[in-house]
Automatic annotation (TrEMBL):
Protein keywords: DNA integration, DNA recombination, DNA-binding
Record's protein name: Recombinase family protein
Domain Resolvase/invertase-type recombinase catalytic residue range list: 4-138
Domain of life where this protein originates: Bacteria
PROSITE patterns for this protein: RECOMBINASES_1, RECOMBINASES_2, RECOMBINASES_3
Coiled-coil positions: none
Database matches in Pfam families: HTH_7, Resolvase
Cited CDD domains: SR_ResInv
Xref: PANTHER family: DNA-INVERTASE FROM LAMBDOID PROPHAGE, RESOLVASE HOMOLOG YNEB
DNA-binding recorded as keyword: yes
Active-site residues (renumbered): 12
Organism this protein belongs to: Dyella acidiphila
Family stated for the protein in its record: Belongs to the site-specific recombinase resolvase family.
InterPro entries, per the entry: Recombinase_CS (IPR006118), Resolv_N (IPR006119), Resolvase-like_N_sf (IPR036162), Resolvase_HTH_dom (IPR006120), SSR_resolvase (IPR050639)
Length: 188
């Protein structure tokens, strides 16, 4: 049985294109390519990656364009690297010139995996800082409230003084019955 050059390509969102990665994999000589549009956060939740890892056999080479296309955490990268090693499959990362068939390639793989996780952690910290700053400025997140404070007060008055039913209030304010019940509970 001859060795196969297998490619894997991934982008995070459906709006992104796989074309550049697929062109690189084809140019390298990949005869089988697995591709998907999914977040790289967890390797277990990517069916094409799992199918790719099942497909590769001893002597095969798995080719990716960049290390972050495979995984975003050292834990996932290490698991994948161990799985490939046990199967006798080498990993080639084109843009970062990594080839785990060599000792230098294995070293670079480990170093770049550490840097990739560090970069991801820094990005997450910046995002949390940005959210905290936005909240300090009064920015609200999430869905816009269906009822204003004035609406909630009017609902309470209509219910108590004019004896409107909850369905009547829901129809009048164009919201669901549950929203009316929550509004009435908050004014208690």
């Amino acid at each position: 049985m001859s060795a196969t050059i297998v490619g894997y390509a991934r982008v995070s969102t459906t709006g992104q294109s796989l074309d550049i990665q697929l062109d690189k994999l084809k140019a390298y000589g990949c005869t089988k390519v697995f591709a998907e549009k999914r977040s790289g956060r967890q390797a277990d939740s990517r069916p094409e990656l799992q199918a790719c890892l099942q497909f590769v056999r001893e002597g095969d080479t798995l080719v990716i364009s960049r290390l972050d296309r495979m995984a975003r955490s050292i834990l996932d990268l290490t698991k994948i690297a161990d799985q490939l090693k046990k199967k006798g499959v080498s990993l080639k990362v084109l843009d970062q010139a990594i080839d785990t068939a060599t000792s230098e390639g294995r070293l670079m793989f480990s170093l770049l995996a550490s840097f990739a996780e560090f970069e991801n952690d820094i990005r997450a910290e910046r995002q949390l800082d940005g959210i905290a700053k936005a909240k300090e400025r009064g920015v609200t997140f999430g869905r816009k409230r269906a009822l204003t404070l004035a609406d909630r007060e009017k609902i309470r008055l209509l219910r108590e003084e004019d004896k409107y039913s909850v369905p009547q209030l829901a129809e009048r304010f164009k919201v669901g019955v549950a929203t009316i019940y929550r509004s009435l509970q908050k004014s208690d």
